[in-house]
Amino acid sequence: MEDIARLAKVSRPNIYRYVSDRDALVRLVVLHRARYILHELKVKNGPWDEALIDLFVKQVKLSIHDEIFALVVEQAGSVAAKLLVDDDAVQTSLNKVIAPILAKGRAAGEIREGLTDEEIMYWLHYQTYSLARDPRLHNVIEIKGLARKFVVGGLIVKPSVKSAGSEKSVSSVQRGKKKPPA
């Protein structure tokens, strides 16, 4: 509570004028910050998989660089995680951002059958939260690599095709960026 009061530039007793206890404060801060972060996300045009990777990276970066959000998530671990993945308002905001991207992937026939948007978004949100808590992840290239392998790789019909010694997603291959090996 003292750290949060210091970051908010108010006295600790002032915090208790607005919230009854630590859990109420965690809920208030986590939900407010999560909504702000989702509001700040802008989806880029282009292939669905690249848009999803870009969105994922932006969400992780915004979460990492928000001092108050990072502090509360670090201090309140599982309470914050439950709030982030179970709150209807956060999930609705996430749905508005991610649903069009997933619709593009489904229209292209590139997302595995049997995965609902709700399941995908729940998992993405939890992964974002997990990565935002990892102090070692501040490198955009590393976050993009993880997103390409595990986020997109877990969603596409065929996870990867080896091409000239490197992995490329099937989505990129199907769009004609790289031809699969003969």
Mean pLDDT equals 75
Which structural class is indicated by helix and strand composition? mainly alpha
Number of domains in the coordinates? 1
Strand order of the largest sheet: 1-2
Q: Helicity level, as a percent range?
A: 55-70%
User: What is the distance, rounded to the nearest whole angstrom, between the alpha carbons of the first and last residues?
Assistant: 61 Å
What's the helix-strand series? HHHHHHHHEEH
Q: Name the poorly predicted regions.
A: 160-182
Cα shape: elongated
CATH architecture descriptor text: Orthogonal Bundle
The number of distinct β-strands equals 2
**Which sheet architecture does the biggest sheet show?**
2 strands, antiparallel
In percent, how much strand structure appears in the residues? Answer: under 5%
CATH superfamily: Tetracycline Repressor, domain 2
| Number of helical stretches of at least 4 residues | 9
CATH class, named Mainly Alpha
Report the radius of gyration as a whole number of Å.
Answer: 19 Å
Q: Assign the CATH topology.
A: Tetracycline Repressor, domain 2
Descriptive notes:
The protein has 182 residues and is mainly α. It has one domain: Tetracycline Repressor, domain 2. Helix content is 69%, strand content 3%. It is built from 9 helices and 2 strands. The chain has helices at 2-8, 12-15, 22-40, 48-65, 67-86, 88-107, 117-132, 140-155, 170-174; strands at 161-163, 166-168. The chain has a two-stranded antiparallel sheet. Strand 1 (161-163) and strand 2 (166-168) form a beta hairpin. Helix 3 runs parallel beside helix 6, helix 5 (67-86) packs antiparallel against helix 7 (117-132) and helix 6 packs across helix 7. The longest helix has 20 residues, at 67-86. The protein is elongated, with a radius of gyration of 19 Å. The protein starts with a helix and ends in an 8-residue tail after the last helix.
